[in-house]
């Protein structure tokens, strides 16, 4: 045990030295070795405990994380989800939204919360209230002339969304490396390639690719993290709607199609690069848009 502790301290000292020297690659390598050693020693310890106390039930890992808890307002989340439905064409201009009671039941929120969400949609210019009939989708193009852009709930949602984007860009290569074998063998790989070859903009494709990647993760905590990040990314549709003529839309769809084809071809590197490029492009585009409009959080 003392020898293992000395080895761990040596790995830690080496990692800190590399960090202090500003050597990024060596720092990454040494921290990976440090944590791999910690995992191995912890596994040996728990194996010994399990052998010594066989009567103790072994439970599967139960990592939980709610990325939105305490940081996303309920009415803003409802509004974001409805905007995503408008962006993907599930709710077309001219169609009516479900009633307040139906939306209240769907999202498990109060009617007051739904009314605030609908007010945000009106401020964003994508919905209008028709007396006696309900709320109708008015447009698939956003504007920020009303109160939504300055509302704390909207800004809080932007902050969480950008945090998720930044984290996702960093972890995607690792996620792809861990799950690509299982992912490429799944029938969804061929389906995604078929959809990528179609005409038009299929904005459900990148979300489906991300959800499939999360589901294929062998480590439960990492799977939970990716699922939560994907859920937060619905805010991206808000900004895609805000700039319908932007070339970023074409770039994003091209990245999603490349990822789908690479998955079908079994090309792990191209798949990871294309998915990372998708979210990196979105991050750069949205940062620029927020600075341009003055609604940056």
Automatic annotation (TrEMBL):
Gene Ontology terms for molecular function: DNA binding; DNA-binding transcription factor activity
DNA-binding in keyword set: yes
HTH gntR-type domain location: 72-140
Entries under Pfam families matching the protein: GntR
Claim: DNA-binding is one of the keywords in the record: yes
Keywords: DNA-binding, Transcription, Transcription regulation
PROSITE patterns in the cross-refs: HTH_GNTR
Transmembrane segment boundaries: none
Gene Ontology BP terms: negative regulation of DNA-templated transcription
Protein name: HTH gntR-type domain-containing protein
């Amino acid at each position: 045990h003392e020898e293992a502790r000395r080895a761990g301290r040596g790995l830690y000292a080496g990692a800190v030295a590399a960090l202090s020297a500003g050597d990024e690659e060596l720092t990454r390598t040494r921290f990976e070795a440090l944590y791999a050693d910690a995992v191995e020693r912890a596994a040996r310890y728990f194996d010994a405990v399990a052998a010594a106390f066989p009567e103790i039930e072994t439970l599967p890992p139960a990592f939980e994380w709610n990325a939105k808890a305490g940081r996303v307002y309920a009415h803003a989340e409802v509004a974001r989800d409805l905007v995503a439905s408008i962006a993907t064409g599930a709710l077309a201009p001219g169609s009516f939204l479900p009633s307040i009671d139906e939306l209240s039941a769907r999202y498990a929120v109060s009617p007051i919360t739904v009314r605030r969400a609908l007010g945000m949609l009106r401020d964003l210019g994508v919905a209008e209230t028709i007396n006696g009939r309900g709320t109708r989708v008015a447009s698939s193009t956003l504007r920020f002339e009303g109160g939504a852009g300055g509302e704390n709930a909207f800004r809080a949602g932007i902050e969480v969304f950008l945090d998720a984007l930044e984290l996702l860009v960093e972890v995607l290569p690792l996620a792809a490396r861990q799950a690509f074998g299982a992912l490429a063998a799944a029938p969804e790989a061929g389906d995604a390639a078929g959809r990528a070859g179609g005409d038009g903009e299929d904005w459900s494709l990148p979300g489906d690719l991300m959800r499939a990647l999360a589901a294929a993760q062998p480590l439960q905590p990492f799977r939970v993290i990716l699922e939560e990040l994907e859920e937060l990314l619905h805010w991206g549709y808000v900004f895609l709607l805000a700039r319908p003529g932007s070339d970023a839309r074409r770039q994003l769809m091209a990245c999603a199609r490349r990822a789908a084809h690479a998955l079908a071809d079994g090309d792990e590197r191209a798949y990871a690069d294309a998915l990372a490029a998708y979210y990196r492009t979105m991050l750069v585009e949205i940062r620029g848009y927020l600075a341009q409009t003055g609604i940056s959080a």
